[in-house]
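Consider this record:
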Amino acid sequence: MPDPLAAALATPGLPWLMLAIGVAGIVRGFSGFGTALIFVPVAGIFLAPQVVVGVIMLTGLVSSSALLPRAWGHADRREVGLLAFAALLTVPLGLWLITRLDPVLIRWCVAMIATVTLAALVSGWRFSGRVNRPQLAGIGALSGGIGGLTGLTGPVVILFYLAGQSAAQTVRANTILFLAALDVVIVANLLVQGAVNWAIVALALVLAIPYITTSLIGQALFDPRHERLYRWVAYAVIALAVLSGLPIWSNGG
């Protein structure tokens, strides 16, 4: 067995990581969101923050590749380019902070960001104004910084960018394209820093298998008549993941 694969299979808590990513796949399949909000808090129990970020980004690259061709055709690529450029500038800051801050503090940051996002989703809050170009740049920059620090690349986009006045199809395509671009930016920075090794790549590939499988299952289960039920199930699963990942349950908290 190749050493990287052996190291991946020996990862502490691997069954829990596979369960978390599998559940995240089902939720994403029938609701369209929630992967990082479910996986990152649980992964933080077993993995160092840099490893969590590397794994979720690499897994995201593998899983989103199937969505990119269609998204490319429907996206406003100039708009996505602005978001990605702004994120490119702030990702290094987030990755720098991840090496300076205490891992327990980062886990608390994950819990706080996920909780605020979940509360906003449950309440139905959305930014109601029109998003202009400077605001788009700010959204991209904030997404890059938070994504680099925690691996949570989606919350800022979910809460602000999705509230824009663009057609739903364009917004969805833009979001898919931007998050894929952000995955690439973060992984590239990690590679430059030497923070991604073959064991992390192998772990991401191991986790991608249940993730892609359960995403397809979730997609097959989706029935538009029960969309509201699916959303509440997603909210409940995210809440459970956030609660289970709180540092108070471990000696480090």
In short: Residues 3-248 form one domain. The chain has a mean pLDDT of 86. The two ends are 37 Å apart (CA to CA).
